[in-house]
Amino acid sequence: MNPIKKFLFELQEVSLLLWGVVTGIFRRPRYLDELIRQMDLIGVGSLPIVLLTGFFTGGVLVLQTFPTLEYYGIHSEAGRSVAVSLIRELGPVLTALMVSGRIGSAISAELGSMVVSQQIDAMRALGTDPLKKLVAPRVIALIVMLPLLTVAADIFGIIGGGAIANYVFDQNQGVFIASVRNGITSNDLIGGIIKPFFFGLVIGSISCHKGLTTSGGTVGVGVSTINAVVLSSIWVIIFDFFLAKAIQSILGVGII
After folding, report:
1. Whole-number Å distance between alpha carbons of 95 and 233
2. Alpha-carbon span 75 to 171, nearest angstrom
3. Does residue 31 belong to any structural domain of this protein?
4. Which 3 state secondary structure label does DSSP give 150?
């Protein structure tokens, strides 16, 4: 199969999977216990690495940009620079990539293992829809929890930037906080929240699809896991570009 046909086939399969998830939401049973378990696994379980990533990303932003801002006499805008960079771009993207590596791989490996051990076939034989029981809770949990994780990463990123500005460059915390407040607009916040919803959808749908289409035994599980993480990460970056362009056009976000 040539690359174009393969891409169109994969796109069709993912679209059908998402359609099955959407239609399954409105039919019983809804497996709320599984949804809550997945939200805990994705949200609480990913919190430490997301907070760590956010904190040090904010810190390195100040570490790299403060000397340049100081050279031009605008070092008081360090907080604004960090906050806008994190909220608009780095917070959503880096959080999505961290979650893709941790959760995307776990979803694909778990579903792939169930496929090769014929657990999925057994579920269908017993009249249970795998899309409702396995896919829908994971996709919905990612869509719900990724924006919350992004907000946490943004907050800790700003805290990390403020810590470096204060302890390394001796900038007054009040100046940094005032710069953050003056630099963030409501459109920045809206744009920074919109992206993670789509990223969660991308990660969940690709990871579940790769897991459910696993073949080749245990070796195939490893291949599916790698493909899930790589493709999820690539599509997060691609979607980020188009979402940023759409947000700029609709909300007018883009000028610092």
Report:
1. 11
2. 9
3. yes
4. helix
Tokens of 113: 């293992």
Structural domain contains residue 157 = yes
How far CA 57 is from CA of 46, 76, 123, in Å, comes to 17, 19, 44
Average pLDDT over residues 155-178: 92
User: Would you say how long the chain is, in residues?
Assistant: 256
Would you place residue 256 in the very low, low, confident or very high pLDDT band (cuts 50, 70, 90)? very low
Its pTM stands at 0.91
- The pair phi, psi for residue 66, each rounded to 5°, is -60, -45
Domain-embedded: residue 190 = yes
The encoded tokens of residue 77 equal 């805008």
31, two tokens? 């497996």
Closest to 31 (Cα-Cα) out of 124, 105, 131: 131
In this structure, what token pair is assigned to residue 72?
């031009």
Judge whether 180 and 158 are in contact, CB under 8 Å.
yes
Q: Determine the structural domain holding residue 204 and report its residue range.
A: 14-251
Percent of the chain whose predicted confidence (pLDDT) is above 70: 98
Provide the domain count of the chain: 1
* Position 36 in a domain: yes
CA 217 to chain centre: 29
